[in-house]
């Protein structure tokens, strides 16, 4: 028998993805819909010898082809790829969910209605007569309760036994379709016509509800009570901050960071030693040994070591998203974010940017308008990520020993101010026609489905590993080559390498910034590979062996470096350098992520160049204004 | 009065929505003439506000709520 193809369609927050994950488990293929960065999820399974493929269409409230998600759904339905379209409906929120069902029937798409979350509906005093609903719609209806193996089996039984040809819209629905047709032929102008049709649809929904549903009022729900604390009153903001702080602590201090360091030590230690030893026994040419150990293992290793951090962060974000709390975060933060021209939903990804820009850029996916997504992605690089912190800490300790903490704090503030400023500039320039709106469902609080949380975490983490890894691999080889070769071939002295030449070319840009040495230029160039490299390049070039990027040891390193670097930097030029590195081009991993998330090289180059330009200007201002004010 | 003027706990009925870019989306989400809306709360900083309509909860900005005229339901 041919593969049975099924499409899942439904509103957001109906448990549609949970059903998809329960049905298909890890047998999923996740790609992109053509031309957009919206996940296309297809899963495969076998049930009673029957091969089944299921596609999880993006969650939408309606199908008017306004948003990219809606366009995908409409296009998919018009192409009629599926044997069976399943409309997943939240039974506890039937009224609004049926709107989409009615729209599907208008499009002459026969649907199997899956009344999901029946347990939640009955807890809320909502009684649905499935038989009556089936009769009122003329379409098959099945009840499920979200994640339960019984529901999953039941669904599969229904999927494999239902013959949609046996069903046709009820007289009630047919009458509605006639009325819609009559309106469409009445010559009303388009906007007005759409409004009248919406009114007709809800009129039909009201009739359906009257026929099949009775509601017994049962006091405020659990979600209502929780919202009185979490989304209202003076405690909401402190609780939000506390939660964010906890996630940050767990990710960067307790769990992710130690794992990252352990992994990094393992790669730089055992793996490198093992590779060196094997290559030597194999009698491989020294240049190749150096390429593998200094270039590839070093470069790719630094990316791989970020994996635990990313996985931890995404686990918490997916979990929180599953509980419904993220919608409250957006609700609370909207007035603040709006001042920067963003919406409340933009806060989460930006906060992640203080840890690492990569998950922050990926997290912007959750934003619903293209404009908010783009702005969020483009301003993230200004924030002080974990890898920039050592640069700031080192320079502050060296040149501002009495005020180190304050200076570092100022750099954080400078990054935030720049991000806000650029959000505003992008808002009124590049994206001015696109409006930012805030219309957000506050779904009931729910215990997230762990399978879904883990699958999401894995998917995002894997994407980072594969896509960013390929770019990093190529860049590592390139940087290794540049720092070990010049036109005469291999060189022992880094100062005679291509990198040094590039560094001195780069330094020409900073004649008026006070740090126009080739060493600074080279540090800036390698900083584009990874921000950690700024400090280590400085260390190598200024002849301090075994420089540490760990914040705790920064004082020792600073003391060692101060002697050799004191000649190249003044206090003021060091400050200008700090400002520059705080703001300039993000690392290639971040750029690779920007390419992946925006899907366009245009935006990737823009992100690389405009941050550089912004950093150049601000840093110049710092140095020149500082000099005018008499600082050295 | 408009939806914006609604106080927490109040139940109102929608009369009309002024033409705006958001009108069709608001209607799609169930805010059509005659629909009953319960005002739940406003965010800690006063904006946006949360309402309950057609058995679910929706958050919207005050500026958008101002476009919705309502009358109180006893």
Brief descriptors of the model:
heterodimer, A: 632 residues, alpha/beta, Rossmann fold, seven-stranded mixed β-sheet, two-stranded antiparallel sheet, 26 helices, 12 strands, elongated, B: 74 residues, mainly beta, SH3 type barrels, five-stranded antiparallel β-sheet, 2 helices, 5 strands
What can you tell me about this protein's structure?
- Chain A has about 625 residues and is an alpha/beta fold.
- Among the domains of chain A are: about 210 residues, Rossmann fold (3-Layer(aba) Sandwich), CATH 3.40.50.300; about 160 residues, no CATH class.
- Chain A has 26 helices and 12 strands.
- Chain A has a 7-stranded mixed beta sheet with strand order 2-3-4-1-5-6-8, with helices on both faces.
- In chain A, strand 11 and strand 12 form a beta hairpin.
- Chain A is elongated, with a radius of gyration of 29 Å.
- The N and C termini of chain A lie far apart (about 80 Å).
- The mean pLDDT of chain A is about 85.
- Chain B is about 15% helix and about 40% strand.
- Chain B has a single domain, classed as SH3 type barrels (Roll).
- The relative contact order of chain B is 0.35.
- Chain B has a 5-stranded antiparallel beta sheet.
- The mean pLDDT of chain B is about 90.
- With about 70 residues, chain B is mainly beta.
Task: Please write out the topology.
The complex is a heterodimer of chains A (632) and B (74).
Chain A: E1 4-10, H1 16-24, E2 28-32, E3 39-47, E4 50-56, H2 68-79, E5 84-90, H3 94-106, E6 111-116, H4 118-123, E7 126-128, H5 130-137, E8 141-143, H6 149-161, H7 171-184, H8 190-212, E9 213-215, H9 222-230, H10 236-281, H11 286-304, H12 307-323, H13 325-338, H14 347-352, H15 357-363, H16 370-379, H17 389-399, H18 404-428, E10 439-441, H19 450-484, E11 485-486, E12 489-490, H20 498-507, H21 518-529, H22 532-541, H23 554-565, H24 571-583, H25 588-598, H26 601-628
Parallel strand pairs in A: 1-4, 1-5, 5-6, 6-8
Antiparallel strand pairs in A: 2-3, 3-4, 7-9, 11-12
Helix pairs in contact in A: 3-8, 5-8, 7-8, 10-11, 10-12, 11-19, 12-19, 15-25, 16-18, 17-18, 17-23, 17-24, 18-24, 19-25, 20-21, 21-22, 24-26, 25-26
Chain B: E1 11-17, H1 23-28, E2 36-42, E3 49-53, E4 56-60, H2 62-65, E5 68-72
Antiparallel strand pairs in B: 1-2, 1-5, 2-3, 3-4
